[in-house]
Automatic annotation (TrEMBL):
Annotated catalysed reactions: a ribonucleoside 5'-phosphate + H2O = a ribonucleoside + phosphate
GO molecular function: 5'-nucleotidase activity; metal ion binding
Assigned keywords, A-Z: Hydrolase, Metal-binding
Organism, scientific name: Kribbella shirazensis
Xref: PANTHER family: 5'-NUCLEOTIDASE SURE (PTHR30457), PHOSPHATASE, PUTATIVE (AFU_ORTHOLOGUE AFUA_4G01070)-RELATED (PTHR30457:SF0)
Pfam family, one: SurE
Family: Belongs to the SurE nucleotidase family.
Class of the enzyme per the UniProt entry, highest EC level: hydrolase
UniProt cross-references to Gene3D superfamilies, sorted A to Z: Survival protein SurE-like phosphatase/nucleotidase
Domain Survival protein SurE-like phosphatase/nucleotidase, residue spans: 8-186
Protein's UniProt name: 5'-nucleotidase
């Protein structure tokens, strides 16, 4: 009997009908993986690692098939999709998690807001390695490029220690026009800056300032702008091994 194929959960935050996940899942299946697709029913961009009130209530689902792959949507977030799959709600639990292809880049320190990246970090917290993949365009023309990069990254991460997570950004260009691959630091702020403003109706709102020039050298922002695939290993919540805060608080409480 041949060994079971590694099972890969593919999820995203753009929704299970989004073109990115529809391009990614068949490409990964063609590589020989047992593909399980579970993603939000609707766009859940920017939800981070939220799972909502998911314990003790049924989760509404929908599904359809395309290119030989079943796509399941859930009434919930990417982190919830990872959690459901990890506890066996969709049969055999995944060995690896692949999140994407996100429409639009995920760069800089603000990636902790990204549902795409948070899905990968949630997987790590549940004992699985994961890849988050984004493409640098709001209306991408080269999904196959990002899918190819994702497949290669998945093959690499399968041999890495459990809990390894990388976030990858891919330029929206043909594969043979990529400048290369670079390890990248997280830009200290994102390419666009958020500002607080007021809507015409008087309610507070957030606006986005134009793209900033001169990105930090060596950052994901800088390499992506130069046409490189950026690869950034990341970790989730981790304590700082320093007891200074506890010592200071104890002293203050002692008077």
């Amino acid at each position: 009997m041949s060994p079971e194929q590694p099972r890969v959960l593919i999820t995203n935050d753009d929704g299970y009908r989004a073109p990115g996940i529809r391009a990614l899942a068949p490409a990964i299946a063609e590589l020989g993986y047992d593909v399980l697709v579970v993603a939000p029913m609707n766009d859940e961009s920017g939800v981070g690692s939220a799972r909502a009130a998911s314990v003790g209530r049924p989760i509404r689902t929908a599904s359809d098939e395309e290119n030989g792959v079943t796509f399941t949507g859930i009434d919930g977030t990417p982190a919830l999709a990872v959690t459901l799959a990890s506890v066996g709600a969709f049969g055999r639990v995944p060995d690896l998690v692949l999140s994407g292809i996100n429409r639009g880049l995920n760069i800089g320190v603000p990636i902790f807001h990204s549902g795409t990246v948070a899905a990968a970090l949630t997987a790590a917290g549940q004992g699985r390695s994961a890849v988050a993949v984004s493409i640098d365009a709001d209306d991408p023309q080269h999904w196959p490029t990002a899918a190819t990069v994702a497949g290669e990254a998945l093959g690499w991460i399968a041999g890495e220690p459990v809990g390894t997570v990388v976030t990858i950004n891919v330029p929206d260009r043909p594969l043979d026009q990529l400048a290369g691959v670079r390890h990248a630091t997280l830009a200290p702020i994102s390419r666009s800056r958020l500002i607080g403003t007021t809507a015409p109706t008087g309610e507070p709102m957030i606006a986005v300032e134009p793209i900033r020039p001169n990105p930090v050298p060596g950052s994901d922002e800088a390499f992506l702008a130069a046409g490189y695939v950026t690869v950034t290993p990341i970790v989730g919540i981790r304590e700082v091994k320093d007891d200074a805060a506890a010592t200071a608080l104890a002293k203050r409480l002692a008077g």
